[in-house]
Amino acid sequence: MIINDIKIFLQNVWKNNLIVNTILQVNINFDIIFIQELSWSTICSIHSSRNCEGESLVGVVNHPNWLMFTRTSESENDFSRVIIYVNIRLASLHFSLCKDIINYRDILLVSFFNNNNVFWLINVYSDSFHTALKYLKNTEAYIHNLLIITCDFNIWDSLWDLSFPHHSFISNDFLIIVNSFNLELSSTTDPIPTRYSDNVNDSNSVIDLMFLCSRSSELNNYFIHPDW
């Protein structure tokens, strides 16, 4: 099965398109890329019957080697903050964006086919108000064969960060959600922070997490690139 060989890269880019461009160019050996906090910007001006000066065409970073999946919107306040790039060499697996099941700016659900089975991937950005997690909690989504939920959850908790002294009640709701999808927290091969603070008075933290299909023989743990 191709799942045995899937390589996934994930990164919060803090609305920096230069970082996205770099990731797409240098990580061609990866199969799938999960991006959080992407930036929507003006690509060009297009002719318009409503405006003689034209209208701005707003989009995100694209690349010929990658298939792009993200939720579009007419409202600036509703632009998606998550995107999934799939290496074009996997095009035969028929990846598809599933807005009919989950249609929310900070949650991206993508399906693909492998050996006559359908599998699912979810990319999440949960802001400091945990709006994405609240959405998942209040949404009944019956998804079988979900392989992965990742990444930036903005939850500080001693369960996954040994340097943090407290347990958050938000984590309890979150764990109920991932358990309902038959997922479990994956352990990093090298336990280092996933977020490095710019403020010397604040400590580094672990807020980027990966939940994988429980007891899966096809998916294993992951490692962190400190350079990113």
Q: How many domains in all?
A: 1
Structural class: alpha+beta
Provide the residue-averaged pLDDT: 81
- Percent helix, as a range, is 10-25%
Number of E strands: 12
Q: Enumerate how many helices there are, as a single number.
A: 3
Write the element-wise H/E pattern from the N-terminal end onward: EHEEEEEEEEHEHEE
Q: What is the straight-line distance between the termini? A: 30 Å
CATH hierarchy: architecture? 4-Layer Sandwich
Q: In CATH terms, what is the fold-level topology?
A: Deoxyribonuclease I, Chain A
Largest sheet: 6 strands, mixed
Radius of gyration: 18 Å
CATH superfamily: Endonuclease/exonuclease/phosphatase
Write structural notes for this entry.
A 6-stranded mixed beta sheet has the order 7-8-9-10-12-11, with helices on one face. It has one domain: Deoxyribonuclease I, Chain A, CATH 3.60.10. The chain is globular and about 55 Å long. It starts with 7 loop residues before the first strand and ends in a 15-residue tail after the last strand. It is built from 3 helices and 12 strands, in the order βαββββββββαβαββ. The protein is an alpha+beta fold and 228 residues long. Strand 3 and strand 4 form a beta hairpin. The mean pLDDT is 81.
